[in-house]
Amino acid sequence: MDVPPPLARAVIDRAADERDDALLERARAEASTRVLVIHGDRAPVADAHLRLVGVSDAPGESLWAFLGRDADGCAVVAAVLPASAPAPELPGVEWAGLRAIGGDLPADEAGRFVQALSLGRWLLDSPFCPACGSPTDIRQAGWVRVCPQCGKQHFPRTDPAVIVAVASSDGERLLLGRNAAWGDVPGYSTFAGFVEAGESLETTVLREVAEEAGVHVHRLSYGGSQAWPYPRSLMLGFHAHAVDDSAARPDGEEIVDVRWFTRDELRTALAGGGDVRLPGTASIARSLITRWVES
Asked: Could you give phi then psi for residue 11, rounded to 5 degrees?
C-alpha cells in the first residue's frame, strides 16, 4: 500500500464551517474543550503522545485558535506562545519539537501538531497589515486577520516547495546531497527548493535539481505532500530519473557534496547503521527515500 508522508496521514475534523468571531469564546467556556499548547515549535508530550490540557491549565497570555473537533465531538484549540516566552509549567510532560517526534506520533496527533504549529507561526509572525502597516485583529477563530484601518483580510500563508528523490538512469542508485548548513554532520538528503513566481511544480523540479546537483532529470512522478512549518512550507514530493548520471556535482554553495547510494547502503542508513545520517522520521525526504528503497 502507498503510505502518505508522515505528517499527511491524519484525517482530522477541522470543523471549518463553525469558524466565526464568537467560536473561540464559546469553546473556551466549555469544560470538554481540549487545548494543544505550542511553545515556539514544541508541544507537551507524555508517554509518546501529545498531552492536551483543559482551558484553565493553558497559559492565558497565549494567542488562541480553533483547530477543530476530536472523535468525541469536543472542541480542540491551540494556545500559542513564542519561543522567547517562558515555557508553561505543565506537570509530567516533556517539550518536543515537530521535527523530532512528528513522525513517531499517532497519525491524528501528528496532524494536530502540524496544524497548530503552522497556524500558530502565522499568528505570531504576522501581526501587522502588509498593505498599510496597522495592527490587525484576529477573526474567524484564529484563521483570518482583518486590518481595522484599510479593511483588508489576510489569511495564513503557505509557500509551495518541491522536494525530489533523484534515481540514476537505470533506477538502481539514488542521488542525495549534503547541505552546507549541516556543518560536519554526515547527513544526506533529497533536493528541495521553493517554487518561484510564475513557475510550475515540474519546472521547479528541473531547475532546482540542475542548480543544486548539476543533473538534468526526466520521468517525473508525484510522491505526495505534507505541511512543513519551517517557516510555512507545503512540501510537494517527486521522484525523477537522471538523464546523465555522470553530470552529478554539488553547486558548492548550498550543496557541498553529492553521492550516489545503493539500496543496500540506504537500508543500512535507515536502520541507523553506517556512517551516513538520513533525514528524521517526520520529514517527507525520508518518506521519499524509503519509498525508493522499497520499490
From this structure: -120, 90
Q: Determine the average pLDDT of the residues in 211-230.
A: 97
Q: Burial of 199 by CB count in 10 Å (0-12 exposed, 13-18 middle, 19+ buried)? A: middle
Return the residue matching grid coordinates 507537551.
44
Cell 484601518 belongs to residue? 149
Q: Which of 116, 142, 199 is nearest to 18 (CA)?
A: 142
- In terms of phi and psi (left: phi > 0; alpha: psi -120 to 50; beta: otherwise), the region of 135 is beta
What cell does 193 get?
527548493
CA dist list (Å): 180 to 66, 96, 115, 202, 257: 39, 25, 29, 25, 9
Give 173's pLDDT tier (boundaries 50, 70, 90): very high
Residue type, 6: P
Give the DSSP H/E element, type plus range, for residue 35: strand 34-39
Q: What is the dihedral of CA 255, 259, 264, 269, to 10 degrees?
A: -30
- Specify the DSSP element, H or E, that contains 39: strand 34-39
- DSSP state at residue 175: E
Question: How does pLDDT run across 91-150, given as a tens digit for each residue?
Answer: 999 999 999 999 999 999 999 999 999 999 999 999 999 999 999 999 999 999 999 999
Residue with cell 502540524: 114
Q: Is the pLDDT of residue 40 over 70?
A: yes
**Is the overall model pTM greater than 0.90, yes or no?**
yes
Among the listed residues 161, 201, 157, 184, the one whose alpha carbon sits nearest the alpha carbon of residue 283:
161
